[in-house]
Amino acid sequence: MSRELNVDLTDCIRPARTDDVAGIVALVRDFYAEDEYPFDEARTAEAVARLVREEGLGRVWVAEPDGGLAGYVALTLGFSLEYMGRDGFVDDLYVRPEWRGKGLGTALLEALLDEARNVGVKALHLEVSRDKRGAQSLYRRAGFEDHDRMLMTRDLTT
Predict the structure, then answer these.
(1) What gap in Å lies between CA 80 and CA 86, rounded to an integer?
(2) pLDDT at 1
(3) Shortest CA distance to 126 belongs to which of 117, 134, 136?
(4) What single DSSP character describes residue 19?
(5) Each residue's pLDDT tens digit, 45-63
(6) What per-residue string of b and e applies to 86-114 under the rule 16 or more CB within 10 Å gives b?
(7) What's the CA gap between 55 and 5, in Å, rounded?
(8) How many CB atoms lie within 10 A of CB 147?
(9) Which of 134, 153, 151, 124 is closest to 34 using CA atoms?
(10) Is the separation of the CB atoms in 76 and 88 below 8 Å?
């Protein structure tokens, strides 16, 4: 079921607050289920709460077009010698399926890009699945480029 968007997008995107954590965790659960990623509710709640609370780690924004959370985006912060300064990572961007195609993803990404510039981020990175053509299109429209590098990860928690 598709929903109509009868609000100004800038009015429905806002920084996440601590009272949003449970709603964001529900969105993360949906996102990870869609992509078949492992999900641990308690650890996710801890991580989301910490990111919302500690600005030195990054920021989270939510889309709330109708009084309920319809999406979120998370920026995490780091440092890069290659880019000679602070860099960031679009850690997650998710919009509920019924709200897709209405500009919420673009509005969330714009909020993240504005804040990234405000805190001195020199380069912004992201990871997108090769089969997510819609997400790739969104990121390309926002100025992201594929540098033909491969993201490799080692989980240090196990």
Answers:
(1) 6
(2) 45
(3) 136
(4) G
(5) 999 999 999 999 999 999 9
(6) ebbbbbbbbbbeebbebbbbebbbbbbbe
(7) 30
(8) 7
(9) 134
(10) yes
Inter-residue contact 30 to 96 (CB < 8 Å): yes
Q: Residue 95: what are its φ and ψ, rounded to 5°? A: -130, 130
Residue among 30, 96, 26 at smallest CA distance from 63? 96
- Quickly count: other Cβ atoms within 10 Å of residue 134's Cβ: 11
Q: Are 13 and 111 in contact (CB under 8 A)?
A: yes
**Rounded CA gap, 60 and 111, in Å?**
10
Environment class of residue 49 by beta-carbon count within 10 Å: exposed (0-12), middle (13-18) or buried (19+)? middle
Among candidate residues 130, 127, 121, the one with its CA nearest the CA of residue 144: 127
| pTM, 2 dp | 0.86
Helices (H), the chain: 9-12, 21-35, 41-53, 104-118, 133-141
Looking at residue 8, its pLDDT comes to 67
* Beta-strand pair 58-63/123-126: unpaired
